[in-house]
Amino acid sequence: MGKNKTWLTLIILFYINVILEQNSITAQTIKKINHQITVDGKVTDSEWGELKPFPLTMYSPTYKSAPTENSEIKIAYDDKYLYASARFYDSDPNAIRFTTYRRDIINNDDCFWLLITPSKNNVTSGLEFVVTPNGNRVDFEIFNDGNSSNYDWNPYWDADAEYDDKGWYAEMKIPFSELGLPNFENETEIGIITGRKISRKNEYLLFPDLSPERSYQSPSRAYSFKFENIQTGSPLFITPYVLGGTSKISALNSSSSAFEYNNTWNKDAGLDIKYRPSSNLNLDVTFNTDFAQAEADDQQINLTRFSLFFPEKRQFFQERSGIFLINSANERVFHSRNIGIAQGQIVPIIAGARLVGSVGDWEIGLMNMQAAKKASLNIATENFGVARLKKRVFNPQSYIGGILTSRINSENSFNTVTGIDADINISGYNYLTFTAMQSFDSRDKNSAGTKFYDHGLYELKYEKRFLQGWSGYAILTRMGKEYKPGLGFATRQDYTQFTGLLHLNNFPGSDSPFQREMFFHLQGFAAFRNKDMSLESSEWFFYPSAWWKTGENLSLVFYHNYENLEVPLGFSKDVVVPAGIYNFGRGLVTFNSSQGKPFSFFTSISYGSFFDGTRTILTFNPSLVVSSYITLSGTYQSNFIIFESRNQNLNTHIFSLKIDAALDTKISLNSLIQYNSLADLVSANIRFRYNIQDGNDLWIVFNHGINTDTDSYVPARLPINNQNILVKYTHTLKL
Predict the structure, then answer these.
(1) Helix, strand or coil for residue 351?
(2) Distance between CA atoms of residues 609 and 577, nearest Å
(3) What is the mean pLDDT of residues 55-80?
(4) Which residues touch 429 (CB under 8 Å, ≥6 apart)?
């Protein structure tokens, strides 16, 4: 009888738990309302009082610990908009962190966010909307299930926030037309992850309950909700621009015997059009495209045998760029900086178009751009094209896709790359990735006797995507000697490479001062020449690392390098490493302070052998929040290289200072001042923006470059490398 009572009690408790679970799910049901909510950050509309808040779980610093502050997040919708509200109470309201009013800059502030996965065909991509306590908005796209992001996606949406002596409050209003929803009749599903960040405590509170074994910004982990009878519409946005200004550029004269200044007055106009042919397709058309307001590149110093990689910073090419990514660990099949930029100079773009979205079960991305002739660089008129297809297969986390890129100029020169790729979730956290690309180039007629694989890039990758316990990847890559990605970026040619990573992570729990411990991390590569499979170069490094719950991070890194130089490697005109075989290594210590404090920094020191010499590297990157209106940040890195046997020394210095100033969410001034000792160049990029409203902007941009060494060059350089000032106005019409 006693056993029967025990079983009966357990059964009753089980069903009580089921009922409670069902009630919690009911509380999370999103309610459709009958009229629009006023978005003012006050969270006082009566509709909010009728909704139950989402249950939040602590993600970090200690998973499932009790939240230290009370929080309420609610979501509702009507026919056209998705609404979200937050009431974030705080026991120390003076410690609420908000450091900037600049759009799309968050600076580790307290925040309320909403991550949306709008497409059932692609649950590894998402759109994130963020608002901070002072009403600053941040929005970005997420790709590859949280491994990549794009902050230059700029949708039209509204948000506001307020704070008082009890905490802070926020509201969002997001048009369904901005989400790229798939076609549906009466009902559609949208995945949602939402949460609160308390910066000073490094505390993240989430819905749904997500364990830290994977990133909380993984769209595939979103909780699915059903929405009924919503309207997406097909808005048309027309954005003309006008600009004017003056420029001074130092350039060689016609005989290349001396530098001279070229002074020009600039005036131009153009047009961008955004249209949605259907709820899940986005069409962008551009005429006489201009990128005057793009941020300047960060200065880099190259102390390797490979070309430097510079990321894309132009908004048109960054928007919706995730569809064009290929999961290759070592090479880029498509890199948009090949369009409109050559030898560091701007090549005018006459017109272009991009279509991105989904049709049925397929994701599609199409782009075509026409660039003008650039006589000073001896570049003919060129057409650039890329077509991308992806389809979900087997399960929501797997896809197979294909890509075609083309580059054709008016002198009958062409380059095409075509191929397939796949990312397959074979079980649990285990993934198998495959890439196979083939290039066709007008120069191939001079490569008689080559095999088909000499024109290809092939890669096979196994990866365990898991942060808890053992994880890692193994990659095998082969690139042929005739593979030419005309719209891509290649680190080297004619090689076979093994790349590997193995690490052990642990999240120790509430009794430890550490949020995360990495006891073992081994990573590196070994590259072999295809012609004889001799080892060309390798780098392997091992490091343990620890992350404190307060936000600090300490790492100890040990490197070993191997280089087989068939030809000398020059770092400057006076410092050259002879051909030969070199084994060398170094140690590195890095420390990251807590990013939730007004002053934070990253610093590192490294010392060891370098080819047949020694190398010391010092890095210091500080950041100071002066107020919510001004943030200062900087970078300093120095290299001290000594080749004692050859009596050669090389000291290099990179310095940068960023000043982010914003009067409010509409007016901002951003400055980037840099010094590169190897290039003997000081540069400044200063950008003033008055964001009248979404789509309507006034920009004033000033660029200035100074040559710090003029006489050591032949012919001698002029003091001013370049100088320009431009005024640009854009105005968006919504039809």
Answers:
(1) strand
(2) 13
(3) 93
(4) 214, 464, 465, 466, 471
Q: Tell me the pLDDT of the chain averaged across its residues.
A: 87
Q: According to the model, what pLDDT value does residue 460 have? A: 95
Q: Is the pLDDT of residue 322 over 50?
A: yes
Two tokens, residue 471: 């994880």
- At 208, which CATH number? 2.60.40.1190
Full residue range of the structural domain in which residue 173 is found: 25-228
356 or 297: whose pLDDT is higher? 356
What pLDDT does 143 receive? 81
Measure Cα distances from 264 to 424, 497, 597, 695 in Å.
Answer: 54, 48, 46, 29
Say which DSSP state 261 is in.
E
Residue 618 burial (CB count, 10 A): 15
Report yes or no on 140 lying in a domain.
yes
Q: Is residue 247 within 8 Å of 723, Cβ to Cβ? A: yes
Q: Which helix or strand (DSSP H or E) is residue 526 part of? A: strand 514-529
- For position 234, what pLDDT does the model report? 78
Answer yes or no: are the C-beta atoms of 722 and 249 closer than 8 Å: yes
- Who's near 555: CB < 8 A, 6+ residues apart? 543, 544, 545, 546, 588, 589, 590, 591
Q: How far apart are the first and last CA of the chain?
A: 76
Q: Quick count: other Cβ atoms within 10 Å of Cβ 199?
A: 24
pLDDT band at 610 (very low <50, low <70, confident <90, very high): very high
- Residue bearing the bigger pLDDT, 17 or 429: 429
d(CA 207, CA 189) in angstroms, rounded, equals 17
pLDDT digits (tens, 9 = 90+) for 635-687: 999 999 999 999 999 999 999 999 999 998 899 999 999 999 998 999 999 99
Q: What is the pLDDT of residue 68?
A: 95
**CA atoms 276, 282, 288, 292: torsion sign:** positive
* E strand spans, 101-257: 111-117, 126-131, 137-143, 148-150, 158-164, 167-175, 187-198, 203-207, 223-228, 236-252
Q: Would you call 17 exposed, middle or buried from its count of C-beta atoms within 10 A (0-12, 13-18, 19+)?
A: exposed
Cis peptide before 578 (omega within 30 of 0): no
- Residue 133 CA to residue 108 CA, distance in Å, equals 12
Q: Which of 370, 276, 384 is nearest to 320 (CA)?
A: 276
Domain count, the chain: 1
In a domain, 51, yes or no: yes
Q: What are phi and psi of 56, to 5 degrees?
A: -105, 140
Q: Give the model's pLDDT for residue 129.
A: 95
Helix ranges, 298-417 (H) = 315-318
> Residue 174, class by beta-carbon neighbours within 10 Å (0-12 exposed, 13-18 middle, 19+ buried)?
buried
Question: In which residue are the tokens 């699915």 written?
Answer: 224
Please tell me whether the peptide bond between 93 and the residue prior to it is cis, using omega within 30 degrees of 0. Answer: no
Indicate the pLDDT class of residue 461, thresholds 50, 70 and 90: very high
Residues in the chain: 735
Q: Which residues are bridge partners to 175 per DSSP? A: 81
Measured CA to CA in angstroms, residue 393 lies from 182, 262, 332, 418, 466 at distances of: 17, 56, 24, 21, 22
Which residue in 192, 199, 218 sits closest to 124, CA to CA? 218
Domain presence at residue 47: yes
Per-position DSSP letters for 173-198, written without gaps between them: EEEGGGTTPPP-SSEEEEEEEEEEEE
DSSP code string of 212-225: TTS-TT-GGGPEEE
pTM recorded for the entire structure: 0.83
Residue 217, domain member (yes or no): yes
d(CA 561, CA 537): 7
Closest Cα to residue 407, out of 330, 312, 488? 488
